[in-house]
Amino acid sequence: MDLLIKKIKSYVQLSSNDEIIIRTLFHKKELKKGEYLLEEGNICRHVIFIETGLVRYYINQDGEEKTTYFNKENEFVCDNMSFLTQTPSNLNIRAIEDSTIWMISHTDIQQFYKEVTTGERFGRLAIEQVFVSAANQIISLYTDLPEVRYNKFVSNYSDVAQRIPQYYIASYVGIKPQSLSRIRKRISRNH
């Protein structure tokens, strides 16, 4: 819980009363590797903070899993589109490794916004960050060559890249695992 409080404080100031409220609204859960945080077709009912662990977002397209994003320790996890509209998700979010998470429900986040002094400001700043990240990712998908996307992946996920299976990385970059191997060899030769 202390890591979660620290993360929220990186966005906004919190009083000791705000911290008490937050501690009552978030609930801890342990996930096993392979366990779903969200399955396609279900409504995203929680915003999740990862204390320890790693998760992968993916869609099923033409019988193939396409990785769209990763979240790691000290990050929030949510299908914002499904959560905000309370409609079924097109995404799957699944633990890549055993994880400890803190969850807040859709109802409780409304209470967070009302009762925590800077709650609404926190929500706005967090969503702005998600929007910018999603926009950059979409632009990269359409404008960057696979090698550039791989380099961005390494830059953004350098601290966890060794913990992510290569076929998930290839899927995220938008190429086959064999192509990823060639890109990695080319990069290592150039360094």
CATH topology of the domain at 2-118: Jelly Rolls
- Pattern of helices and strands: HHEEEEEEHEEHHHHH
Q: Largest beta sheet: what is the strand line-up? A: 1-8-3-6
In whole angstroms, the N-to-C terminal distance is 41 Å
Point out poorly predicted stretches.
none
Categorize the overall geometry.
Answer: globular
What Rg is obtained from the alpha carbons, in whole angstroms?
18 Å
Q: What's the number of extended β-strand segments?
A: 8
Helix percent reads 40-55%
| Tally of contiguous helical segments | 8
Structural class: alpha+beta
CATH H-tier superfamily of the domain at 2-118? Jelly Rolls
Largest sheet: 4 strands, antiparallel
Mean pLDDT: 94
What does this structure look like?
By secondary structure, the chain is of the alpha+beta class. The protein has a domain of 117 residues: Sandwich (Jelly Rolls). The chain is 48% helix and 24% strand. The protein contains eight helices and eight strands; from the N terminus they run ααββββββαββααααα. The strands form two sheets. It has a four-stranded antiparallel sheet with strand order 1-8-3-6. The chain is globular. It starts with a helix and ends with a helix. Keywords: Kinase, Transferase. This is cAMP-binding domain of CRP or a regulatory subunit of cAMP-dependent protein kinases.
